[in-house]
Amino acid sequence: MPLGETPSLVRPAPAGRTNDADGTPRRARRPLGDRLAPFVLLLPAILIILVFRLWPLALGVNFSFTGDGDRDGTSVGFDNYVELFDDPVFRIALRNVGWLVLLLPVAVAIPGLLATFIFLRVPGHRFYRSVYFFPAVLSPVIVGSIFNLLLAFDGPLNRVLGAVGIAPVDWLGDSKVAIFTVVGVHVWATFGMALVVFLAGFATLDPALLDAARSDGASLPQVIRHVIVPGLSRTIQFVFVTTMIGMLTSMFGLIFVMTSGGPGGSTYLPEYYIWIQQGQLNRPALASAASTVLFLLMLVVGLAQVALLRRSGRED
Amino acid sequence: MRGARIGRWVVAGLMTALALATIYPLLFTANAAMKTRHEYILDRFSPATSVRWENLATAWTSAGMARYLANSFIVVTGAVLLLLLFGSMAGFALSHVRFRGSRALFLGCLAALFVPFQVIMVPLVRTMADVGLVDTYPGLILAYVAQFLPFTIFLMTTYYSGVPADLVDAARIDGNSLYGVYRRIMLPIGAPALLSVGVLDALFCWNDVLIALLMMPSAEHRTLMVGVTVLRGQYSADIPTFASGVLIAAVPVLAVYLFFQRRIADAVTAGSTKG
Question: Which Pfam family is an annotated match for this chain, by its short name (chain B) (predicted)?
Answer without folding.
Answer: BPD_transp_1
